[in-house]
Specification:
The structure holds three protein chains of three kinds.
Chain A: E1 5-8, E2 11-12, E3 15-16, H1 18-34, E4 38-43, H2 47-51, E5 58-62, H3 72-86, E6 90-94, H4 99-110, E7 114-124, E8 127-134, E9 139-144, E10 150-154, E11 171-174, E12 185-191, E13 205-209, H5 219-229, E14 232-235, H6 237-241, E15 262-266, H7 272-275, E16 283-287, E17 301-303, H8 307-323
Parallel strand pairs in A: 1-4, 1-6, 4-5, 5-11, 6-10, 7-10, 13-14, 13-15, 15-16, 16-17
Antiparallel strand pairs in A: 2-3, 7-8, 8-9
Helix pairs in contact in A: 3-4, 5-8
Chain B: E1 2-6, E2 9-11, E3 33-35, H1 37-52, E4 56-62, H2 67-77, E5 81-86, H3 95-106, E6 113-117, H4 128-136, E7 140-150, E8 153-159, E9 165-171, E10 174-178, H5 190-199, E11 202-206, E12 218-222, E13 231-232, H6 237-250
Parallel strand pairs in B: 1-4, 1-6, 4-5, 5-11, 6-10, 7-10
Antiparallel strand pairs in B: 2-3, 7-8, 8-9
Chain C: H1 11-19, H2 36-40, H3 51-59, H4 63-68, H5 80-84, H6 91-105, H7 111-123, E1 154-160, H8 163-167, H9 169-184, E2 189-191, H10 201-205, H11 209-225, E3 227-233, H12 236-245, E4 255-257, H13 258-264, H14 266-269, E5 280-283, H15 297-304, E6 310-312, H16 334-341, H17 345-355, E7 360-363, H18 368-378, E8 386-389, H19 390-398
Parallel strand pairs in C: 1-2, 1-3, 3-4, 5-6, 5-7, 7-8
Helix pairs in contact in C: 9-19, 13-15, 17-18
Classes of the chains: A alpha/beta, B alpha/beta, C alpha/beta.
C-alpha cells in the first residue's frame, strides 16, 4: 500500500488558489501519520512558477496545451492514469467549482471511494479519519478514511494556508500527459469581472452586507460607513444576486476570499459558503438581529441591533473619532 | 430535445437536526425533507430551455415521502413527465447509490441533456451529477449558471472563484450541474399545482438495486463546536456604535 | 331560440365577467368614473392603473395593458377605495385581488412576495419558521398559555394567535401581554400551538387565493378537533378571514377581535387598571378592524379606561384611517414598494401622530408595531414616540 498523500493543485490563470495550500497543510499531517510523502500534482504550464512555494516533498506535473484552461474532461483523463499508477493513500482536491467537477467522476470511473466537504483529518491509532462539514455547517460527520486509496474533496477552514507554503521550491518530476484529443468540454471565452473595480481580497477593512440590507437604497448607508472606516463594501450571495453590488464584491465560495484587519458583517447569517471565505480575517464583527445566526460563532464581537439603525450612528461616531 | 432532471430531497434546515441513538445518523422522525434548492434551479433551467424551443422535460426522483409535491410542482411549472423510482429508500441512500440508480433508469430515456443540482448540503460522497455522467459516458460541467443549446452542443457559463466566468462548449449528450438557473425558480400558485395534481400522471418504475459502494461510512455525527462565540455587545445602536469605535481604536483600525 | 355563444372570449372579457359575481360584483358595471378611489388610494399617484382607470381599461378592452404594469403591486388592500366608492363596488376584494391573482398566474411575482408565499405554502407561516416552534413564544413567560391537545381538550375561548404574533420578536411582546390580560380576567382559553396555520387573508388579497384556501382548510381541521365557545384573535386580518371569508368555504365559527372581547369585559377590567399611563395617546385604526369590519369604538373605549390616558385623534381617523402599508401583501413588498415610491405610508402616519400632539401611537394589529417603530426611527421629529398595542398599554396600567 502506498502511504503517500497526493494533492491536486488548483490554479487559475497562473495563480495557485488558497485551497491548494490548505490541502498541502492537511496532507502534511496525514503523511506524518502514514509515514508517506506529500506529492503535489500540477496540470498546467509554467509549472516552475506555480510550484515555487508549495510545501510538498515532490511535484508531479504534466504539461499540455489542454491545461491552459480548466476543462473537466482534460483533468479527468489526465488524473485517471496518475492515480491508477501510484495508488496513493489519499488524493486531495479542492471542494470548489473546479475540484467538484473532477473528483466525483474519478471516484466512479476508478471505483475509488470519495469523501466530500472534508474540513479536517485526524489520525487515530494509525487509522486516518475524516471530519466533514455538512447540512449548511450545522452538522459534522466523522468516519474512517477508506483504505487503500480514497479521493477527498476539501473545504477550507481546517488548516491555515500559510502552513502549506514553503520557502524552497520542491523537486519537480515530469509525467507524460495522455492523449487529450477530442475534448468534449472546452473553454471558448472568459467574461472578465468588471475592470477598474476594487479588489476586496486586498482591502484592510471590509464592510460586508447580507440579506439584512433589505433594499438597494440602503446600500448607500454601507458605502458611507465603509468610506468613514477607509474600507470597501462587499456582500454575500443574496445581495449580489439582487444586483445591488457588482459580482466582483462577492465574498464567498464562488466569489473572493478576504483577509482584512476588520471584517464587519452586517445582516449576514454566516452560511458555510460565506464563512469559508472570511476565516483569515484578523477580526470579525457581526451585526445580526438573529441571535442564532452562525456568524456569531466565528465573530470576535457581535450585536443584535438592527444594522439599518447601526450604520448611520456608527458612521457618525467613526467620523468624529477620526476628527479628534 | 430530451431533457432529464434527476432530483433529490434533503433535510430542511429550518427544523432542528437530531442525531439518533446510533450517533451516526440523523433521526428520520425529526427530519422534514425538501427539494434540494440546486435541483429546483435545475428544473427551472430545463423549463426555460423547453420554453425557448422544442423539448420535453422529464423529472426523475426517488419515491420517498414528500416527493409527490416536488414533482407536481415541477409539472405545474412546465415539466412533461414525472417519474418516481420505487425501492427501499427507508435507510437513506448515498450519492454513489443514487447515481447508479439514476444512470440505470435515465439511460432508457435517451436524454440529450441532463440537468441536476450541482450539489446538495448533505452530500458526503461528492455530487450526483459527475458520477451520473461517468456511468452514462457523458461529459460533465458543474457550477453552471446559464445554458444555451444549439446543434449538438450546449454553451454554458461556469463560475470560477473571484467573479470570473468561463463560456464553455460541451458536446451533447451531457450532464450539467446547475448552480443557478438563468432566472430564479418561478412561483406557481397553489391552484395551478392542485389542477396539475388532477391531470398529471406520476409514473413509477422500480429502481435498480441500491449499490452503496464508493461512499465513506459515517461513524459519528456531532454538532460543530461553537467554542469561541462572539462577545455580544449590549444596548441600542448608539451604545453599540460607541463600543465599536473603542474596539476599532484598540485594534488600530482607527 | 338560439343563444349566441362566444367561442373565444378574450382575456379582457373573461376577467371582466369574473368580477361580476353576486352579491356585489355586478356593481362594477355601475362605476361612475368619478376617480374618488384613485384619489383616496395612498399609492394611487404611483399606479399606472389605479382602480378607476383599471375599470376604464376593462370597458375599453385594453386590460392587457394593466397586466403589463407592475404597479398593481402598490395596492396595500387598505379598503380606502372601497370605503369611498359611491357605487359600492367591491374594489379591494374583487378588482384588485383578482388583478393580482392574474399577475401571479402569469408568473409576474416580485421576489420578496414569492418568498413569503413559498414560506406560507411550506411552513404554514410567512416568516419561514419551523411550524413545530409556533408555540415557542410561550416558553419561559409568567403567564399560563394552555395548548389544545396538550393541557386542554376544550375551552371557552380558542385564541387564534397568527403568524407575526407567534414568531415576530416584537409582536411576541403583544402576545405575552394578551396572555397576561386573559390570565388576569380568569378566561378559560387555549391556543392551537403547532396545529395552527397562518390565516391566509393577506395572501388572498395579494392574489394567492388557492393558498388562502389551503391554509383555511388546515385551520378548519384544527378548529374541528377541539371544543370551544368562540375564537378570539389579536389579528384583524385573521379576524376578517375567519369572520367573512372562511364561511364562504363552509368554515363557520364565531370569532371576535380582542378589542371587542375586552370591551365587553370593561367593568371587570377597569378595577385592574391602576397605574396611570400619562400622556396623549392616539389610536391608529387598523384597516381590517375599521373599514373592513366597522369596529371603531371598542379599542377607543379600552384606551379611555386607562387612568391618565388622554385620547387624541389624527387627521385621518376612523373610516379615513391611513394604512400602515402592510396589507394585501405590502408586508412582503417592502423593497419593491420603496423602490417605486421612495416613501412609506407608515412614515406619513407617524408624522400625523406627531401632529396630533400624541406621545403614544396605539395600535391593534400585529403588522403595525414593527412597521411604525421602523418609521419612528426614520422620521426625525418622531424620536420619543412610543408605539404600543392597546393590550400592551392595558398591561402597563395593570402592573403593580
Amino acid at each position: 500500500m502506498n502511504s503517500d498523500i497526493f494533492v491536486v493543485i488548483e490554479h487559475l490563470r497562473g495563480q495557485v488558489s488558497d485551497i491548494s495550500y490548505v490541502m498541502l497543510a492537511a496532507a502534511r499531517g496525514m503523511a506524518n501519520a502514514t509515514g508517506g510523502k506529500v506529492i503535489a500534482v500540477i496540470l498546467g504550464h509554467d509549472v516552475e512558477t506555480l510550484a515555487r512555494d508549495l510545501a510538498a516533498d515532490r511535484v508531479l506535473y504534466m504539461e499540455h496545451a489542454a491545461f491552459a484552461d480548466f476543462s473537466s474532461d482534460a483533468y479527468q483523463r489526465a488524473l485517471e492514469g496518475v492515480i491508477k499508477e501510484h495508488a496513493p493513500r489519499a488524493v486531495l482536491f479542492g471542494d470548489t467549482t473546479m475540484g467538484g467537477d473532477v473528483a466525483a467522476w474519478l471516484s466512479t470511473h476508478l471505483a475509488l471511494p470519495l469523501v466530500s466537504a472534508c474540513r479536517t483529518f485526524r489520525a487515530d491509532a494509525g487509522a486516518l479519519k475524516f471530519v466533514s462539514q455538512i447540512c449548511g455547517g450545522k452538522m459534522m460527520a466523522e468516519g474512517d478514511l477508506p483504505a487503500p486509496t480514497t479521493l477527498v474533496l476539501m473545504v477550507p477552514g481546517g488548516y491555515k494556508p500559510e502552513q502549506g507554503r514553503a520557502a524552497q521550491a520542491p523537486e519537480l518530476a515530469r509525467v507524460n500527459a495522455p492523449a487529450l484529443d477530442d475534448l468534449r468540454v472546452t473553454v471558448k471565452d472568459y467574461v472578465e469581472p468588471a475592470v477598474g473595480d476594487v479588489d476586496v481580497s486586498k482591502e484592510a477593512v471590509v464592510v460586508s452586507i447580507g440579506r439584512g440590507i433589505q433594499n438597494q437604497d440602503n446600500v448607500e448607508l454601507a458605502e458611507e460607513l465603509a468610506k468613514a472606516l477607509g474600507g470597501v463594501v462587499a456582500g454575500s450571495r443574496p445581495v449580489i444576486d439582487q444586483g445591488w453590488l457588482a459580482p466582483t464584491r462577492l465574498v464567498g465560495k464562488s466569489g473572493k476570499a478576504v483577509k482584512p484587519k476588520l471584517y464587519l458583517a452586517l445582516g449576514i447569517s454566516g452560511a458555510p459558503e460565506h464563512v469559508e471565505a472570511i476565516g483569515d480575517s484578523e477580526m470579525i464583527v457581526a451585526i445580526n438581529t438573529d441571535p442564532a445566526a452562525p456568524i456569531f460563532d466565528i465573530a470576535k464581537f457581535g450585536s443584535q441591533v438592527d444594522m439599518l439603525d447601526l450604520m448611520p450612528v456608527l458612521t457618525e461616531k467613526v467620523q468624529q473619532a477620526k476628527g479628534l | 430535445m430530451n431533457l432529464v432532471v434527476p432530483i433529490k430531497l434533503v433535510p430542511d434546515l429550518v427544523e432542528e437536526l437530531v442525531i439518533d441513538a446510533s450517533g451516526a445518523r440523523l433521526d428520520p422522525d425529526a427530519l422534514r425533507l425538501k427539494l434540494n434548492e440546486f435541483d429546483d434551479h435545475a428544473i427551472e433551467q430545463a423549463i426555460l430551455l423547453k420554453e425557448k424551443g422544442a423539448g420535453q422535460v422529464t423529472v426523475v426522483a426517488p419515491d420517498i415521502e414528500g416527493v409527490d409535491d416536488a414533482l407536481f410542482t415541477a409539472a405545474a411549472k412546465g415539466a412533461d413527465r414525472l417519474i418516481k423510482l420505487t425501492g427501499n429508500w427507508n435507510n437513506g441512500v448515498n450519492n454513489h447509490a443514487l447515481a447508479r440508480v439514476f444512470a440505470n433508469f435515465v439511460e432508457t430515456l435517451r436524454p440529450e441533456l441532463i440537468l441536476t443540482g450541482v450539489q446538495a448540503h448533505n452530500d458526503l460522497d461528492g455530487a450526483v451529477g459527475p458520477q451520473l455522467a461517468e456511468h452514462l459516458g457523458m461529459p460533465y460541467v458543474g457550477y453552471v449558471s446559464g445554458v444555451v443549446v444549439f446543434d449538438n452542443k450546449a454553451q454554458v457559463r461556469k463560475e470560477f472563484p473571484g467573479g470570473l466566468i468561463a463560456e464553455m462548449d460541451v458536446v451533447l449528450p451531457a450532464v450539467l450541474g446547475i448552480q443557478a438557473a438563468e432566472k430564479p425558480p418561478r412561483y406557481v400558485p397553489i391552484s395551478k399545482v392542485r389542477a396539475t395534481m388532477k391531470t398529471a400522471k406520476l409514473e413509477t418504475f422500480p429502481a435498480a438495486e441500491l449499490e452503496t459502494a464508493g461512499a465513506p461510512t459515517t461513524v459519528r455525527l456531532f454538532q460543530p463546536e461553537t467554542g469561541a462565540r462572539a462577545t455580544m455587545l449590549a444596548g441600542d445602536a448608539d451604545a453599540v456604535a460607541t463600543r465599536l469605535v473603542e474596539i476599532f481604536r484598540e485594534q488600530g483600525i482607527l | 331560440m338560439t343563444i349566441p355563444t362566444i367561442t373565444n372570449p378574450s382575456f379582457n372579457e373573461t376577467f371582466y365577467a369574473s368580477l361580476q359575481t353576486p352579491p356585489t360584483g355586478e356593481r362594477v358595471r355601475t362605476c361612475l368614473q368619478c376617480g374618488m378611489c384613485s384619489g383616496v388610494c395612498p399609492f394611487g399617484y404611483v399606479m399606472d392603473f389605479p382602480p378607476g382607470r383599471m375599470i376604464a381599461a376593462l370597458r375599453s378592452e385594453i386590460f392587457d395593458r394593466v397586466m403589463k404594469s407592475d404597479t398593481v403591486w402598490m395596492c396595500v388592500a387598505c379598503y380606502a377605495c372601497t370605503e369611498v366608492c359611491p357605487s359600492g363596488i367591491p374594489l379591494t376584494e374583487k378588482l384588485m385581488a383578482r388583478a393580482k391573482e392574474e399577475l401571479i398566474l402569469s408568473g409576474a411575482v416580485p421576489a420578496e412576495l414569492q418568498l413569503a408565499l413559498e414560506n406560507s405554502q411550506r411552513y404554514g407561516n410567512v416568516l419561514g419558521q419551523s411550524p413545530r416552534k409556533r408555540a415557542d413564544w410561550t416558553k419561559g413567560i409568567q403567564a399560563t398559555v394552555p395548548v389544545f391537545g396538550k393541557e386542554k381538550k376544550s375551552a371557552e375561548v380558542l385564541w387564534y394567535v397568527g403568524d407575526y404574533a407567534s414568531y415576530h420578536p416584537r409582536v411576541q411582546t403583544t402576545s405575552r401581554a394578551f396572555a397576561q390580560v386573559l390570565n388576569a380576567l380568569g378566561v378559560d382559553f387555549a391556543i392551537l400551538g403547532s396545529d395552527e396555520s397562518g390565516d391566509g387573508d393577506s395572501q388572498r388579497l395579494a392574489g394567492e387565493r388557492g393558498l388562502f384556501e389551503v391554509l383555511a382548510a388546515k385551520n378548519a381541521q384544527a378548529f374541528r378537533k377541539y371544543k370551544f365557545g368562540e375564537i378570539i384573535t389579536t389579528d384583524p386580518h385573521a379576524f376578517n378571514a375567519i369572520k367573512n371569508v372562511y364561511p364562504t368555504l363552509g368554515i363557520s365559527f364565531p370569532v371576535r377581535h380582542y378589542t371587542q372581547f375586552l370591551a365587553e369585559r370593561l367593568e371587570q377590567l377597569k378595577p385592574l387598571l391602576k397605574q396611570p399611563v400619562n400622556g396623549k395617546i392616539t389610536f391608529h385604526d387598523p384597516c381590517y378592524l375599521g373599514r373592513a369590519n366597522n369596529i371603531y369604538d371598542e379599542p377607543r373605549a379600552l384606551l379611555q379606561a386607562i387612568p391618565g390616558a388622554e385620547l387624541v385623534e389624527m387627521s385621518h381617523s376612523g373610516k379615513t384611517s391611513l394604512c400602515c402599508g402592510g396589507g394585501g401583501g405590502g408586508m412582503w413588498l417592502e423593497g419593491f414598494q420603496w423602490e417605486k415610491a421612495h416613501t412609506r405610508t407608515s412614515e406619513w402616519r407617524v408624522r400625523e401622530a406627531i401632529a396630533s400632539g400624541a406621545t403614544t401611537l396605539a395600535v391593534a394589529c400585529p403588522y403595525e408595531p414593527p412597521r411604525f417603530e421602523d418609521a419612528v426611527k426614520t422620521v426625525r421629529e418622531a424620536s420619543g414616540m412610543e408605539v404600543r398595542d392597546v393590550i400592551e398599554l392595558l398591561v402597563e396600567s395593570m402592573e403593580q
